[in-house]
Each structure stands twice: as C-alpha cells, then as structure tokens.
Amino acid sequence: MRLFKEIDETLDGRVLARVDVNRINRQTRAVDAFIVERATGKTIFKLHFLTNAKNDYAAYEVATKYIRQFVHDHDYIVDGGVDTNIELPIVRNLNKRTR
Fold this sequence. Notes:
There is one protein chain. The protein has 99 residues and is an alpha+beta fold. The chain has a single domain (9-84), classed as Nucleotidyltransferase, domain 5, CATH 3.30.420. It is built from one helix and four strands; from the N terminus they run βββαβ. The chain has a four-stranded mixed β-sheet, with helices on one face. The longest helix has 18 residues, at 56-73. The mean pLDDT is 89.
C-alpha cells in the first residue's frame, strides 16, 4: 500500500486554466475561473465574480488577468493557454489578389 502518490516530474509546475462566462442578462455576466495542477489534479485557484463588461470577451480578459497574475506569483506554467466556453476572435489573413 502506498502512502504517498508519486508526482510525475514532467508535470511538476504545470497547470490547466479555464474561464467560463455566462450571461445573466443584457448587461451582467457571471465569470467562473479556476486553475488545476496537473501533477496532483487539485484545484489551486478559484474565482467567481459578476461584471458589467460590454461583451463576453472583455469579461474573459478580466478573468485571464487574474489567472496570469496568480500563475506569475506562484511560478506555474499554463499548458496550452486558457480554455474557455466563449468564441474568441480569430485574426486571419486573406490572400486577395488585385490586378
């Protein structure tokens, strides 16, 4: 019987982050954010707040600011960026030929 769970050294210091933005009404949005440590599977950061941001992306940016600050202060690495339930804007280049 093992008393301590072995921690994978490759996952040490790596975390997964997620932000969920839910509209309550036209002006108010509920934002839930959390960070899970990959090595142990424990939630190490939770955040819930209401905001009057103009759109879902603005509410997402406010939450990611707190996530980035927490990750920086505790020397973690976010794997793959912050996951979310909203559609993020995409910038793409069009190869339009003119004559």
